[in-house]
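Batch job 17 of 40 flagged for manual review because the log was empty.
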Amino acid sequence: MRVLILHDLPSPAILRRALGNQTLFYPKYRPDTEVTLHGVGDPLNDSIVNGEYDAIFLDVSFLCWRWTRTHITFEDFIEKYSWVATSSAPKLAFPQDDYDHHQVLDDWLSEWNVDAVFTPLASHGNVLFPKMASKALIEPFQTGFVDDADIRQSEKFNIPLAQRSMDVVYRARLLPAKFGCLGRLKSLVAEVFAPKLLDAGFKIDISTDPEKTIFGDRWLDFLGSSRFVLGSPSGSSVLDPVGEIGQRIDRYIADHPQADFDEVYRACVPDSAALHWMAAISPRVMEAGLTRTCQVLVRGEYGPMEAEKHYIPIEPDFSNLDAVMEQMRDIAEAQRIADRCYDLMTTSKDLHYRHTADRVDDVINRIRIAQGKPAIQRNSDIDCELLMERQLAARLSDKHEAIAGMAEQLGAVTGGPITVARFSELTYVVEDRWRRLYRAFDEASVRYQTLSSQVDSIIREGTNLRQAHQSLEQKYHALSAEYEALYTRPRVLIARLLELAKSVLLKRINRTN
């Protein structure tokens, strides 16, 4: 199975963990897949343009190029990747925020003969994608899913709510009027509820200041420090087909810098653009569920989650805030709600990347069969969690040739090859896999300590020493082999790989100077 993923991910330093997980979910849960990652702006060589692929993924970050303000720049972009349209490989698009420039997106995907659109707003497919809905598959897809690594990492947040240091936390940004009343809820819930929580004596850390945005694993730590977290549905109540409403809003704000949301909305958003409430569950809701933090959410669309059972509901008009605060004082009930939500997040097939990969496989095969091609048979016995370093470059672009040899060695230890086109992708993959290795090493260490305790106990009791010796010897050899697989070999390879990567980077810096 050969897959090309076209993306435009930012630097790992500012990459939101949910976006990174979504872009790389398929190669992670299909470790026998040969994947080529290509980032916008990287050189396009013949091996990429003329490569033979079993599927081409248009990542959400790649599809964001429809928002390019300079029309000629977008035309140049489309022309640069026009070869995608002529590829016979099944083409899958994974957009988000479809309501923003939805006509541009529909035209683009239609011209490129995309076969399937995976969208959180599939129920609005006929409105958002009139061209694509008539000739392609419109498949439901979440804005994010639960990852195996998330579930393992969530174990450290198994801390009773009563023992947590904060009462309520929240981060959001003030969305522009082009997202309508639905988008406004994200910041409004903080503006309205935070003062009441403070007056009621709750200890809070709530902010809509972009400077206080929290990235990476620190976000989970932030959630895990609190008993409650606020939230609202993700989406928009305004359709902006070609971006005209957004541009009108920008011009109005430039002319009226003191205008508030309501004034801008009344002046710039026609009633005809606000006929649909396009909401979806946010990845933040899933992350909060995994940290066992009780969620206090504006009542709305959250997939399989149910109000009162999996979260405490705030009415959209904020008429029940006093009753909500009274519920929040019942920590025992809040714990039960958080636990039920955690169970849902870790058991629902609709919310897990592994099962999402199964759905993507099914769609690819449906397309292949419709094209007269045989279905691709998957190896369902592969344990992707044990293949700790598949997806690290077996072949890099010319400027990273010094790293290619070590990448091939590491790929040989851990699974099939992948092409990484830029330096930041390599460091991101190495860092992510090293964290997973370290967690697995910790788990093996716990088992070693248990084994050591068993030895001490047997020595003290002095019974059945011969039988116990054989059993312990077998466990020791198995554990030694696990250490070798999880720590010794990959640690040496990764260390050497990073050293080579660093030397390449230094050479580039020296050439610049």
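Reviewer: the log was empty due to a logging misconfiguration, but the result itself is present. The first strand starts at residue 2 and ends at 7. Unflagging and moving on to job 18.
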